[in-house]
């Protein structure tokens, strides 16, 4: 579905998610594997596998598997269950990210008003 609107915030393209059953089953199975490896990692930490060289390697491998499995879960979820939406964004000029107002595009001097602040610091009752 596309719209021809070009104002800021209009939806330019909207493709609904596929929501396949196979992806849902795969996410559930990957979640079970995730829980098993998180449990294995927690058991290894509690039982002191990290004290010897081989156990430390097993803990690192279990942690790597946990994060790779989590990456696959998130990838499947994003691809199968989130819609593809493109909105019209406001095009910004280069200086807009750097300055607040257009008249400030040349910047300000760091010494503007420095002499007044020195006078106020030296003479506390300057304006009274």
Automatic annotation (TrEMBL):
Keywords: Membrane, Transmembrane, Transmembrane helix. The chain crosses the membrane at residues 21-45, 57-77. InterPro entries: DUF7318 (IPR055742). This is Uncharacterized protein.
């Amino acid at each position: 579905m596309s719209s021809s609107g070009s104002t800021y915030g209009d939806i330019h393209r909207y493709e609904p998610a596929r929501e396949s059953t196979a992806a849902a089953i795969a996410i559930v199975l990957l979640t079970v594997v995730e829980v098993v490896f998180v449990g294995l990692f927690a058991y290894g930490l509690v039982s002191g596998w990290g004290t010897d060289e081989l156990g430390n390697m097993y803990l690192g491998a279990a942690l790597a598997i946990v994060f790779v499995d989590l990456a696959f879960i998130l990838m499947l979820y994003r691809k199968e269950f989130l819609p593809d939406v493109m909105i019209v964004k406001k095009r910004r000029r280069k200086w807009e990210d750097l300055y607040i107002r257009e008249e400030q595009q040349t910047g300000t001097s760091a010494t503007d008003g420095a002499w007044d602040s020195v006078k106020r610091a030296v003479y506390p009752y300057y304006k009274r």
